[in-house]
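Section: Multi-chain targets

For targets with more than one molecule, the full set of components is provided together so that the structure can be written out for the assembly as a whole rather than chain by chain. Components appear in the order listed by the source. The example entry contains two components.
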Amino acid sequence: MEPISRRRFLTTTAGGGLAGILATRVPPARGQQREISYLCWNNFAPASDKKLAEIGQRFTKDTGIKLKIDHVSHMGPQQQKYASEVQTQAGHDLVEMRMHFPWLYEPQLVDVSDVVGELEKKHGKAIGSAYEGAHVNGAWRAVPQYHGMFVATYREDLFKKASLKVPDTWDDLYTVGKELKKMGNPVGIPISQNYDSISTAGPVLWSFGGMEVDKDGKTVRINSPATVQTIEWYKKMFRDCMEPEVLSWSDASNNESIQQGKAGWIHNPVSAYIVAKQRKLITADGINHHRSLGGPHGRHETDTPRHIGIWKFSKNVEPAKEWIRYLLGTREVYDEYIMSGDAFNLPVYEKLQDHPVLRTDPKYAALRGEGVQYHTYGWPAPPSDKVQLITNTYLLPNMIAKAVTGTSPKDAIAWAETEMKKILAG
Amino acid sequence: MAVRADDLPVPRGRPRLAGRVREWLDHESILGPVFVTPALLLLVLLVAYPFVMALYFSMSNAFIGRPSRWVGLHNFIALWDSDVFRQTFQNAFVFTSIAVAFKVVLGIILALLLNEQLWFKRMIRGAVLLPWVIPTALSTLGWWWMFNSLYSVVNWTGIALGIVDPPGPNWLGQRYYAMSAVIAVNVWRGLPFFAITILAGLVAIPKELYEAAEADGAGANARFWHVTLPLLRPVLAVVVLFSTIFTFGDFNIVYILTHGGPINATHLFATLSRQVGIDTGRIGEGAAISLYLFPLLVFVVWAQLRFVRKQVY
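Its structure, encoded as tokens over all components, is:
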């Protein structure tokens, strides 16, 4: 055989290799840097973010996939990021979304039904609110991650001091609220342009038998006697149990009010207590939780499920799915993540509902068994981008704010009805 | 000694090219465009392109991440049916007219004060600029804390001095108070721009005019109305023009202080545009909101520049 010169060998092998790469359009695995980026929001339980970073480092070590986690504060900036990333078709591979956002961004999100199917086999079916938020037109557009449900947070020490009975219904809350206001510790329910306002207004409306849009998703039902009852309840609460400051509140204001010793009762997830405990505030010992309140039409609550979505423009869909499987698919890792959230991040799969995190503090007892039946904004209308539009335009709290500041309930409801009809027609 | 052509040094390629370039640059018709091109490119990339995109979006039914189609002026017409938009339209005029009026009056007063012989004059003039220099988002957070219902230092001081009854005004939760709060912060922030620009105008007024007026028996008031103000008019016109445009387009102050609330009472075009375009994804409608006043502002710019030209020439 004719000996092959070194130059000829190099030319032939390099040419062949390059031709292979060009033909398959896939670079060789060796030396290829696998890197994914994940945009999530600053968790209300800050220890959870630290744990996420720690799990991320282990993921990189175990899989060789580099993970870059970016945090963005709360809802406003997050929405700007979603919008700009989608418009420019560039940015993070994975994004944390809450509520119905997968509906708004459906065409831009990868179908992750395969991943959710695997998780459901391991942890049980995803809870109802997770379905409402991320199961879009028969396909999962984001993977249910955790949820933070609304409960009643109150100053147990003040209730005991004044011998007040823990309320069981929204009308009971009016009875104790009057006393709390007299004591200088009013009820703190925001009636302003933020999501917490909707998180309370929804359950009150549902408990009185009302709804914004019917089950068909097309018919506006806000103009009803139940809405009138809801507004009348808010009017008397605003007059006798609260202070006008609730009209200016942000999502954080009710937390701050109870933490700083002012509010005696707020409607909020356990984050107010968690932060008070972590900052060693003197009010932390006095804060406790009780189960959600009911009305003539049952007991309803708001749930704000979080999901992880993968943008379609991502070039790393498989590594991104690997990260989701690593974080949520392994029971030990998922437990570790949930435990770090100190009962703010609760599992979204049915078999994990009675989670050990609920036994880490006696003040989480009220959360056991709650949440599975809860709903996201807009219920009972099937979730859709339109429902998310009604939510994001703050029509419900603005209708109530109008009524408590002097507009007649009839006019306030008519205003909301007109605006909702416009959104559904658009 | 006769020099033969062969003896001459042969010019190398590079110096010949450099020489040619130098020759070209000597021509004004070439040098001008060379200087202007970078600025023009920046303008096209950072101003013209986004503006044309905004125009396109405003005439389409664009929804974030979905295909869009041309709808002409539909967005602009449909907006007028929205109660929130009509409220915003009214807010924008109330906010801008009151804020600009305050800035003009207070700006003239502050400029007159700064024009006096003061101790530490330079330091005071520098300090006056601070509100304008600090990033708006940061300073507005400070104001938010001062107006916050739980921590309001304004209310606390008022109550401590016995001026207001506890718990004090609901600054950000009552429509008129909220509008007053956002106007107050806008005036606080915009005042240095007015004061310093008017001060520059004041310094440029020849002293002889004041001396002549004084010799004719004009008092301080008469000197202000008949000398200072007429000569400040061109400067005032330019300052008012810029401020009107900036105030109409304000975003940070309202977004941080009130989020457009209570009940949309402080929404401006920019904040509503963000809510509609970003929060709800309807960028077509959002762009239409932000461009709604564009024709009016173009007219204002044209009219005021015309006025300035008349004053100067």
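Residues 54 and 145 of chain B are 35 Å apart (CA to CA).
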